[in-house]
Amino acid sequence: MRTARAGVVRLVLDTNTVVSGYLWNGPPSDLIAIAMKNILTVDLFSSDPLHTELRNVITRQKFSKQLALKGWTAERLLAEYADRVRTVVPPSIPRTVLDDPDDDVVLATALACRAHLIVSGDEHLVKLGSFRHMRIVSSAEAVSLLRDGRSFGG
User: Fold this and answer.
1) What long-range pairs does 104-108 form, CB within 8 A, spacing at least 24?
2) Given this model, what pLDDT does residue 87 score?
3) Residue 5 pLDDT > 50, yes or no?
4) Contact 77, 50 (CB under 8 A)
5) Residues contacting 149, CB < 8 A, separation 6+
6) pLDDT for 153 beyond 70
7) pTM here?
8) Would you say residue 83 has pLDDT above 70?
9) Which element (helix H / strand E) includes 9?
C-alpha cells in the first residue's frame, strides 16, 4: 500500500461517482480527470469493499454499451482505477447511514485515509453533509473546491 503524500487533497469517491466519471461527461468525469492527470494535487483512495462494489456495478449488462462507446471493457476500467487509487483498509464503524447501511463502507474508507472530501451522488450520503469533520459533497462541488484552490489542511 502506498502512503498519503503531504500537501495533497485526499478524496474518496463513491462507486456512483467512479462509474459516472468514467462513462459519461460532466462533473464526475472532470473530477476523475483532475485526479488522474495531475491537473491538481489530488490522491484518490478506495478499499477492497469499494473495489468489489465497483466490479459488481460496472459488470452489469446495462453498462456494456456505454463501456464500448467509451472504449473501455469492464476489466480494463477496473484495472485502471485500481492502479490509480491508494487502497486502505476501512475500520469498523458504528452504523451511520441508517437508510442505506451499505454506504457505511464509503465513510469507513474515508476515515481510514483521513479524507478531505467524500464525493458522492448518493442522496443518503450527501444529506449527511459531513462525517467526522470530512465534508460529503457532490462531484460538481468537489471540482469547484479543487479548482478554487481551497486549502484543506493536513
Assistant:
1) 105/47, 105/49, 105/50, 105/53, 106/12, 106/14, 106/50, 107/131, 108/47
2) 97
3) yes
4) no
5) none
6) no
7) 0.91
8) yes
9) strand 9-13
What is d(CA 103, CA 111) in angstroms, rounded to the nearest whole number?
13
- Give yes or no for a contact between 31 and 139, defined as CB atoms under 8 angstroms apart: yes
H or E element, residue 84: helix 74-84
117 - beta bridge partners?
11, 135
H or E element, residue 110 = helix 104-113
| Whole-number pLDDT of residue 2 | 43
- Strands ordered across the beta sheet of 130-131: 86-88, 42-47, 9-13, 117-119, 134-137, 130-131
Phi-psi region of 74 (alpha: psi -120 to 50; beta: other; left: phi over 0): alpha
20, amino acid identity: S
Question: Which three cell numbers, joined as nine digits, stand for 3?
Answer: 502512503
Contact at 8 Å (CB) between 7 and 40?
Answer: no
Best CA proximity match to 96, nearest among 79, 111, 85: 111
| Residue 38, amino acid | N
Kindly state the cell numbers that stand for 120.
458522492
